[in-house]
Amino acid sequence: MASRGEGTTSSWTDLLPGLVLFAGPVQEPEAALSWEAPPGLEDLGARLAPEAEAILEEVCQWLGIPESPRGTLHWVTDRQGIIQALDSKPPEWSAAVTFPGTGDVWLATEIAGGMDRLRVTLRHELVHLAMGSLGKETFERLPAWFHEGCAEHFAGDLYLGRVGVSLPWRAFTGSLSPLAEFREDFGREADHAAEGYALGHAMVERLHRLHGQDLTAKILRRVAEGDSLDQALVALTGLSVVTHEKDLRADLASAHALAGEIAPEFLTLIFLALALSFPWLFHLRKKKRMRFELKWEESEALEAEAGPEKNAEDFGDALDAWIQREEDGGR
Fold first, then answer.
1. For residues 172 and 87, which has the higher predicted lDDT (pLDDT)?
2. Rg of the chain taking only CA atoms, in angstroms
3. What separation in angstroms does the CA of 90 have from each of 6, 7, 44, 53?
4. pTM
């Protein structure tokens, strides 16, 4: 999560004295990234340092940034570590915060989850760090949803995906929020934030699918020269943000998108309903057969004197045939 809005000013100036809580950064002189960690996380910081360098180089290559920016990875255990360090409370759902102006990236290991999730979070945050190296004006000229959409695209995972927001369903029901709501931030409520992250990701994914993976680098070059995102998209794709969003919402509300979103859950629901209803249907069928048998016995009693007795097998076959005729006649 890139820090914007309230508190953004501090992200483009030096951190206050005493903000760094943990002494003794371990770093190579030529490395772009240094790191700091409390006791118990030093091994993690050392193990991920080379990987973080490689990720940052990969990000810069994708974004068309010629040189990796300097930055510091601050590893903390939980959200409380971020609160104590920043003297502010990030949203409950936030596992990391990046201050592009200072190059400081704070990552809470317990919130991020296991190593795989932690690596995804690291890739996500390093996109913010790289984009911040383009300068304050360029960074703030781009909306928050675009920043997060690019970070999610590079990280290869939907941030807050565990919340389970369905964009196709919300688009189909007309309850999908507009991208404009996520220009500055995503709010503090997890469901609304998850919607914004998912929507930004969907927009960036669509732009890349239609116009190539190098579109983001082209956009950043034009924005660095003074364009807004809307102007850059018109110049590069021929369509404005509004038109791209309109097309995206139409795609999300389509039957194909909706079917792809609900199919697994719908099939599960069908199988569950069948499994639960089978005993009841079997019970109804048994009761129906018993009624037919009683009716058959009454009929047979009237004909008992007219012919020889039937054996058990003949009785069963005749009964089945009689039931079938009764059912056919009832339709």
1. 172
2. 32
3. 11, 11, 23, 26
4. 0.70
